[in-house]
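Run: sequence + S-adenosylmethionine -> complex structure.
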Amino acid sequence: MRKTKDKGLGLFATKGIEVGAVVIRFEGEVMPHSQCPEEEDPYMLLLSGGYGVIPRNESRFVNHSCDPNCEVFGKYLVATKEIRTGEELTFDYCLLDEGDNYEWKDSWTFECKCGSPRCRKAVDGFLYKPRCKGEAAQS
Ligand SMILES: C[S@@+](CC[C@H](N)C(=O)[O-])C[C@H]1O[C@@H](n2cnc3c(N)ncnc32)[C@H](O)[C@@H]1O
Ligand SMILES: [Zn+2]
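>> structure
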């Protein structure tokens, strides 16, 4: 974990990570997302069924990118690209499983500084990813 140029703290790979590897598990208290204390709002990871987890390990500091190298499956951050030592670990905060039904909160919106050519300029509203066959049985 270290300071980024303009996104506060971020999490960085200390070794190379292969596609499909679990990078970190979001460890912390699970609660109905509606009960999340306001100061923890930027940190809560939404789970399915109206619940969320307030991360207490280093997963707390994973920043957003519009062209990320990881994706969240349940409580797990998984590499979706090959990641080299020193690269920042990121996921797309806007991606939600199809079927999860959350309302975007204004307080979650911020100007995106991911720097990717595919940057959407703002983190502001959900994008849905289609549910894979068999995934429902595993979650
Ligand atoms: C879960 S925290 C990530 C850790 C955070 N950088 C910190 O220092 O505590 C989420 C917050 O980080 C900042 N952030 C994350 N990704 C960002 C991005 N791509 N551009 C600008 N700010 C970002 C936003 O302030 C966001 O609300
Ligand atoms: Zn961006």
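>> summary
The pocket of S-adenosylmethionine (ligand 1) is lined by residues 7-10, 42-43, 61, 63-65, 110, 112-114 (CB under 6 Å). The chain has a mean pLDDT of 93.
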